[in-house]
Write a structure and sequence with these properties.
Strands 1-2 form a two-stranded antiparallel ribbon. The chain has eight helices and two strands; from the N terminus they run H-H-E-H-H-E-H-H-H-H. The protein is 42% helix and 11% strand.
Length: 141
């Protein structure tokens, strides 16, 4: 998910381009406003943490771009491209390393496991909004 900072800074195309260039397949994409209830459900594992309010406030402050990507080892690949949560620990060349200055204003969310991805996809997408299209890339090369 591309968070409000990516939209506000006009970086949507840049971030999506990085994921595409890696060879991942985009199968779901939509811009949306997240309700406080959906934000609380999405971040339920952080509910008792002191930064929960900041997380939900930020993600509901402006539109986000929700996405579903496919590929071999997709979760692990996306996590590497995204970089560590803390901007001071994110390597240059990662999405967070290049575009994120504050943990509370993180630019992107990436699922941390296949199970989390399935749960999060279910929060943001209906089944009919996922389009598992045939990738004909090999015929173009």
């Amino acid at each position: 998910m591309l968070k409000p900072g990516v939209l506000n800074r006009r970086l949507v195309g840049e971030v999506i381009s990085r994921l595409e260039r890696k060879g991942l397949k985009l199968v779901g994409l939509k811009m949306m406003l997240i309700s406080p209830e959906l934000a609380a459900n999405h971040y339920a594992e952080h509910k008792e943490k002191p930064f929960f309010g900041e997380l939900t406030s930020y993600i509901t402050s402006a539109p986000v771009v929700a996405m579903v990507w496919q590929g071999d080892n997709c979760v692990q690949i996306v996590r590497k491209l995204v970089g560590k949560t803390s901007p001071s620990e994110s390597e240059p060349g990662t999405i967070r390393g290049d575009f994120c200055a504050h943990t509370q204003m993180n630019v992107i969310h990436a699922s941390d496991s296949d199970e989390s991805a399935a749960r999060e996809i279910g929060l943001f997408f209906k089944n009919e909004e996922i389009i598992d299209w045939e990738d004909n890339l090999s015929s173009w090369i």
